[in-house]
Write the structure tokens for this entry.
Amino acid sequence: MGPVANALVTGGARRVGAAIARELAARGARLAIHYHRSEPAARALAAELGGVAVCADQTDAAQVERALGEAWDALGSLDLVVANAATFRRTPLDGLSEADFDEQVGVNLKGPFLWCLAAGRRMKARGAGCLVNVSCASTRRPWADHVPYAAAKAGVEGMTLALARALAPAVRVNAVAPGPVLLPEGSDGAQAARAAAATLLGRVGRPEDVARAVAFLAESPYITGQVLAVDGGMGIR
């Protein structure tokens, strides 16, 4: 696949998702921006990029199928789906509950699975397409206060490899695994310093670093079944 013509970015209204959408648009792609609760930001970005906004709770298969169909019909097809939407919340062991696990796995693993399943089937039937999932460096350097999150993201990577086999040769499936490229909202200077120190490069990255990695995978026709770390060397620190 060369330049991407039509793409859907889940959770594309804010933060890393918005950076991915802007990077793809700068490379000539027409965009569908998925949102769940960020409607004003999604619609504003879609208008800025000349695209469309679609809404879905990504833990609900019917909503995902509907939103994907809306994006597919609005753009004429989809060459790329980037499963970026996620939730990140501390879940310390002392208070960890089944509900915490269900929430983290529901949004962070089931959600990408539903998008990949709906898009992958359409793309396979058409004979071409690309899926890029967004994992996390925590699959190699997990945080003690984020056990369900780390489990979900490890599942995303396993799913990526399995789907690469299941959808080959028509559809390529890869993932990016960001490290500290955008700190949680409300982070302070001390947290930023700790995040930078956890990398080999000694600094926090930017959302644009992830966006360029996604675009690279989307435009590389001989790469599938790979997880590309975008973590400043955090995984081997």
Observations:
- The beta strands are 6-9, 30-35, 52-55, 80-83, 129-134, 171-178, 227-230.
- The chain is about 45% helix and 15% strand.
- The chain has one domain: 6-236.
